[in-house]
Amino acid sequence: QKEVEQNSGPLSVPEGAIASLNCTYSDRGSQSFFWYRQYSGKSPELIMSIYSNGDKEDGRFTAQLNKASQYVSLLIRDSQPSDSATYLCAAPPGRRALTFGSGTRLQVQP
Amino acid sequence: DARVTQTPRHKVTEMGQEVTMRCQPILGHNTVFWYRQTMMQGLELLAYFRNRAPLDDSGMPKDRFSAEMPDATLATLKIQPSEPRDSAVYFCASGLVLGLAGGNEQFFGPGTRLTVL
């Protein structure tokens, strides 16, 4: 079992819709979780971090964490074509450095 | 503005040659990470340092790869000898970790795209 798992997609949503990206992790000891966005040919860019159960909102982005289910999600409201990218979920297993999921490719159709 | 810088941005070399990649972390950050990204394997951690000390290099092929931090403003990743399978994008990232647990925010440099012929 991979430490951090994501559906590779592509996830296609129409402009203006809500995009929902999901991630599961295997290590119950993980305490912090991160979402990165990576445009093609660019480096990963941190967009959200979440440390406690529940929701965290930042503009059009909402991160959701459920430690009991070992599940992290990212919601993007009012999706724009500029949101089209690969979204990487990351968590630190134990005390180690971040482990990244393989990423979900999001396509927002104008 | 503060950002991680990496040089070179692109490198094409022949098999067997030595390759050195450099990274300048964000000033004040105490943790530096080296990642490799390929289509097949995704983003893999190669090595990381905290306060210039190597904490984990288990992801790195020891026989040909080496990572060092000669000072707080410079991290290097060296491949000798290089092989075609080393072709990838190599990212450096830095972060500020204040406690024993890892995993605080990391900020990535632009990457070095390496092609080994």
If you had to describe this structure to a student in words, what would you say it looks like?
- The complex is a heterodimer of chains A (110) and B (117).
- Chain A is mainly beta and 110 residues long.
- Helices cover 0% and strands 53% of the residues of chain A.
- Chain A contains no helices and eleven strands.
- In chain A, the strands form two sheets. In chain A, strands 2, 4, 5, 9, 10 and 11 form a six-stranded mixed beta sheet that branches. Chain A has a five-stranded antiparallel beta sheet with strand order 1-3-8-7-6, with no helix packed on it.
- Chain B is mainly beta and 117 residues long.
- Chain B is globular and about 40 Å long.
- In chain B, strands 2, 4, 5, 6, 9, 10 and 11 form a seven-stranded mixed beta sheet that branches. A four-stranded antiparallel beta sheet of chain B has the order 1-3-8-7, with no helix packed on it.
- In chain B, strand 5 (42-50) and strand 6 (53-56) form a beta hairpin.
- Chain B has no helices and eleven strands.
Protein topology:
The complex is a heterodimer of chains A (110) and B (117).
Chain A (H helix, E strand, L loop, with lengths): L3 E3 L4 E4 L4 E7 L7 E6 L6 E6 L3 E5 L2 E6 L4 E6 L8 E7 L7 E2 L3 E6 L1
Parallel strand pairs in A: 2-11
Antiparallel strand pairs in A: 1-3, 3-8, 4-5, 4-9, 6-7, 7-8, 9-10, 9-11
Chain B lengths: L4 E3 L2 E4 L5 E6 L6 E8 L3 E9 L2 E4 L8 E7 L2 E6 L8 E8 L10 E3 L3 E5 L1
Parallel strand pairs in B: 2-11
Antiparallel strand pairs in B: 1-3, 3-8, 4-5, 4-9, 5-6, 7-8, 9-10, 9-11
